[in-house]
Specification:
The structure holds 2 protein chains of 2 kinds. Chain A is 41% helix and 18% strand. Chain A is an alpha/beta fold. Chain A folds into 2 domains: 102 residues, Response regulator (Rossmann fold, 3-Layer(aba) Sandwich), CATH 3.40.50; 126 residues, 3-Layer(aba) Sandwich (Rossmann fold), CATH 3.40.50. In chain A, the strands form 2 sheets. Chain A has a 5-stranded parallel sheet with strand order 2-1-3-4-5. In chain A, strands 7-6-8-9-10 form a 5-stranded parallel sheet, sandwiched between helices. In chain A, helix 6 packs parallel to helix 7. Chain B contains 5 helices and 5 strands; from the N terminus they run E-H-E-H-E-H-E-H-E-H. Chain B has one domain: Response regulator (Rossmann fold, 3-Layer(aba) Sandwich). The longest helix of chain B is centred in the N-terminal third of the chain and has 13 residues. Classes of the chains: A alpha/beta, B alpha/beta. Chains A and B meet through helix 5 of A and helix 1 of B.
Chain lengths: 286, 120
C-alpha cells in the first residue's frame, strides 16, 4: 500500500457545528491516498498546511504563520472581497473539499499519485461524466442489493434492470460478505437492519476497509431517517443515504452522480487489467 | 361482494408504498397502518371492506392482530389476507387457524392481489 499523504488543516473562529461536519467529511475522505486532518488544538502553528479562518480573525493567522495557505470563510459577500480562496457560508462540504484539493495541488505543489500509463485529466473526466440517456445508461455495470425484504429486492431489481444494470441480491449480512469477497461490484445498495450477526453500518465499514472494493459506492437504503442515523451512515463510509420508501428519482440521481464520479477510476482499473494482460502476452516463452 | 375500502397493514414503508401503488391504480380507497395496534384501531373506526395484514411486525404480529379482529363482533366479518415473506406450509396453516382468508407471499404480485379481491 502506498504511503498516505496527510495535510493538516487548522481551523480558527469557525462554529462548533461547522467543525463537527468538517470532521465527518474529512473522515469520509480517509480512503484516498492524500487526505486532510483537522487540527483544532493548535500548539504549534507551523505544523498547519492550510487554514480555514473566519474572515474577521484573519490577522491572527497572517501574523502567526505566513507560509500556510488560508481559506477565508465569510458569512456574506458584503463583508469581504472575493479572492481565489474565499468561501462563503453556508459551507458546502463538497465544494470545500474541491477547494482544499485545489490548494494542495496548486499551492502546495502536491502531485496526487496516479498510474503512469493512464493520465486522468480534466478532459477525460469531462468526457466520461457526460450525461447519458436515462435508460440503459449503465449497461455492463453490476449492482449488489443487500436487503432482507423480498419486496425491496424485487423493486430494486426491476428499477435497476431498466437502467441496464446486472443485479445480484443478498438477504443476510453473511451472504453479503460472501458476495463482496467473491466478486467486485460497481455499486452496492445496503439496508441497515439485516438478519445475521452484523448490521449494515458494519458491512459498509468492511467494504470501505477492503483494498479491492473500498472505492465501490455504497448507497444505504433504510427506514431509519433520523440525523444520528444519517451521520452513522456517513461515518461508516457510505456514499449516500436514502430513506425508505425510496423515491426513484432521488435514487437514480444518486446512482448517476456516484457512477459518473467513479467512471475515471473504473476506466483506470480496466486499463490496468488490460495493461497486465498485455504485459503477460508480451513475454517470450521460448 | 363489493370492495371499496382497503386497509393495508405493514411496518415496512416500502411494502406499504408498493401495495398502495398497486391498489390505487385499481381505484380503491386505501387506508394505511404501520402496526397491529394501529390496524385494530383503524378497523374499528373505518370498517374497511378488506384487510391485507403483514405477519412480522414489532408490537403485535399479523396472526395475533387477525385473531383479535376475528374476536371483535364489529370486525369479525371483514375478510383478512395475511401477507408475508414466509411462505411455508405452517404459515398457511396458522393463517387458516386465526381466521384469515389466506396468506399471500411477498413480494406481492398485483395480478394475484387483484384476483383475491375479485374472488371474494
Amino acid at each position: 500500500m502506498k504511503n498516505k499523504h496527510i495535510f493538516k488543516v487548522g481551523v480558527f473562529g469557525l462554529k462548533q457545528t461547522e467543525i463537527s461536519v468538517l470532521k465527518v467529511f474529512f473522515s469520509l475522505h480517509g480512503y484516498r491516498e492524500w487526505y486532510f486532518q483537522l487540527v483544532t488544538n493548535i500548539s504549534d502553528v507551523n505544523q498547519i498546511d492550510i487554514w480555514l479562518v473566519e474572515h474577521n480573525k484573519l490577522d491572527f493567522v497572517l501574523k502567526g504563520n505566513s507560509k500556510a495557505i488560508h481559506i477565508d470563510i465569510c458569512s456574506s459577500k458584503k463583508e469581504c472581497t472575493e479572492s481565489d480562496y474565499t468561501f462563503f457560508r453556508p459551507l458546502n462540504m463538497q465544494l470545500l473539499m474541491k477547494m482544499l484539493d485545489k490548494v494542495v495541488v496548486q499551492e502546495l505543489k502536491f502531485v496526487p499519485p496516479i498510474n503512469d500509463k493512464v493520465v486522468i485529466n480534466d478532459k477525460l473526466i469531462k468526457d466520461i461524466s457526460k450525461p447519458t440517456a436515462s435508460t440503459k445508461s449503465w449497461q455492463n455495470y453490476t449492482a449488489l442489493v443487500i436487503d432482507d425484504s423480498p419486496t425491496v429486492r424485487t423493486l430494486m431489481k426491476a428499477s435497476l434492470h431498466r437502467y441496464g444494470f446486472k443485479v445480484e441480491t443478498a438477504e443476510t449480512s453473511e451472504q453479503a460478505i460472501q458476495a463482496i469477497k467473491l466478486r467486485s461490484y460497481d455499486i452496492i445498495f445496503l439496508d441497515v437492519i439485516l438478519p445475521g450477526s452484523i448490521d449494515g453500518y458494519k458491512i459498509c465499514k468492511i467494504i470501505k476497509s477492503g483494498s479491492d472494493y473500498k472505492h465501490t459506492p455504497v448507497i444505504m437504503l433504510t427506514s431509519k431517517g433520523s440525523t444520528i442515523d444519517k451521520v452513522r451512515g456517513k461515518l461508516s463510509g457510505s456514499s449516500a443515504y436514502l430513506t425508505k420508501p425510496v423515491d426513484q428519482t432521488a435514487l437514480m440521481n444518486s446512482v448517476n452522480k456516484l457512477l459518473r464520479e467513479r467512471a475515471p477510476v473504473r476506466m483506470k482499473q480496466k486499463i490496468n487489467s488490460l495493461n497486465k494482460v498485455n504485459h503477460v502476452n508480451s513475454f517470450n516463452y521460448t | 361482494m363489493t370492495i371499496n375500502k382497503v386497509l393495508v397493514v405493514d411496518d415496512s414503508p416500502t411494502d406499504l408504498k408498493n401495495m398502495e401503488e398497486i391498489l390505487s391504480k385499481e381505484g380503491f380507497y386505501i387506508s394505511l397502518a404501520r402496526s397491529g395496534m394501529e390496524a385494530i384501531k383503524k378497523s374499528n373506526e373505518e370498517l374497511p371492506d378488506i384487510i391485507f395484514l403483514d405477519v412480522v411486525m414489532d408490537d403485535k404480529n399479523g396472526f395475533q392482530t387477525c385473531r383479535e379482529l376475528k374476536k371483535n363482533p364489529q370486525t369479525k366479518d371483514i375478510p383478512v389476507f395475511l401477507v408475508s415473506s414466509k411462505n411455508q406450509k405452517v404459515d398457511h396453516l396458522y393463517a387458516n387457524q386465526v381466521g384469515a382468508m389466506g396468506l399471500i407471499s411477498k413480494p406481492v404480485n398485483s395480478e394475484l392481489l387483484m384476483s383475491k379481491i375479485h374472488n371474494l
